[in-house]
Amino acid sequence: MQGEKTLNGVIHLLKGKRSAQTIQDISLFQCEDITASLKRYSFQELKNLSHQMKNKNMLEECSLNTVSLTAEGCLKLKELSAVYHFPTEFNGLKYEWNHVAASFWEDLSLLVQTVSHLKDNNYRFLPVSVKKQSQQQVKQLLKTNGSIVDIGQALVKDLKQILHLSSDQKANLFVKKLTSSQRTGRTYSQLSMPFQQDPHYTEIIFWAIVHQIITKVSQTPEEYSILPILLPLEMKEQLVTDTARKTKEHLDKGLDLQRIANARGLKISTIEDHIVELSIHDPGFNTNVFITEEAKLLIQQTADLLQTTRLKPIKDNLGDRFSYFQIRVALSQKLKGVVRT
After folding, report:
1. Which InterPro entries does the protein's record reference (predicted)?
2. pLDDT at residue 183 above 90?
3. Do residues 20 and 243 touch, judged by C-beta distance below 8 A?
4. Looking at the domain assignment, is residue 228 inside a domain?
5. Exposed, middle or buried by CB within 10 Å (0-12, 13-18, 19+), for 162?
6. What's the predicted TM-score (pTM) here?
7. Distance CA 119, CA 11 (A)
């Protein structure tokens, strides 16, 4: 991020915080792949890790409390990049941001466990997922898709077919995370040997496999019997937050920003955040009412010239011709359409 974000801002992106600022950062810095990639770690855990990096002279604070890798940090990154390869199948914005991957895995792992136990006539077991939604999904699937034997055979066929897309090591990782009537799914530590003996890296690899499965099944659902049924409803949702959608409803009625803020009991700055969010993730959203195409181009060219996406340097260069809000809209439009889908 070229030393332009605070440590908290970086952590919020890696954890997938649903805020207007994070949404804009994802687009501006083209971080769609790694968005929410570390959401399973607490904020404090990531904060502690940053402190360790500072103590080892790999991370430093810059002006305005932003952070950047030091020369030593860049060297370490290059060294690690030769060993750890971030999987190309991992798409954090698409599958982690809205918890699509987690939902799919919970339903699939519960289905595998349930079918396995029922085939063995074992009707009492501790489910791997206690979420009511997952349990209802599996119950409904079992009621409407034939006998347990038929479902089991179809599921095995689907999984064999889809896992042929992965290496033997990755397929083995995925299968051994599943729980059946015969064994409990293994931990990342137990499965980390082929993946640099690193449980954290193993976890990223695992979720990349889940992402790949969802991608393939959603692209060619006709090739599978059971897996398409498990695709989460969240996949149909846009990346726009509910509160931004409500603001858009008011905009569609012709209300200006002040009237929308009054109607919703929010600050104008919050409504502006929603507009930037809509600008990034709503393909049909028209921003010309807030700033002309010529002004957008000028702001974008200035950002390129200054080699920054920070608002203050751009504002200082352009003077009082544009508000911070207009600059944000222009920058959001600059990268509109680069979000990977």
Report:
1. Helicase_HTH, YpbB-like
2. yes
3. no
4. yes
5. buried
6. 0.78
7. 45
Cα-Cα-Cα-Cα torsion 197, 50, 34, 208, nearest 10 degrees, comes to 20
CA angle 217, 221, 223 (to 5 degrees): 95
Structural domain includes residue 286 = yes
Residue 1 resides in a domain: no
Asked whether residue 289 is assigned to any structural domain, the reply reads yes
Please state the length of the chain: 341
Q: Whose structure tokens read 């409407």?
A: 144
CATH code, domain with 264 = 1.10.10
Choose one of 193, 220, 236: the last residue of a domain.
236
pLDDT at 132 over 90: yes
75-101 tens-digit pLDDT: 999 999 999 999 999 999 999 988 999
- Could you tell me the residue range of the domain that residue 268 belongs to? 242-334
Domain boundary among 34, 67, 87: 87
Same domain? 124 vs 14: no
- Max alpha carbon distance in the chain (Å)? 75
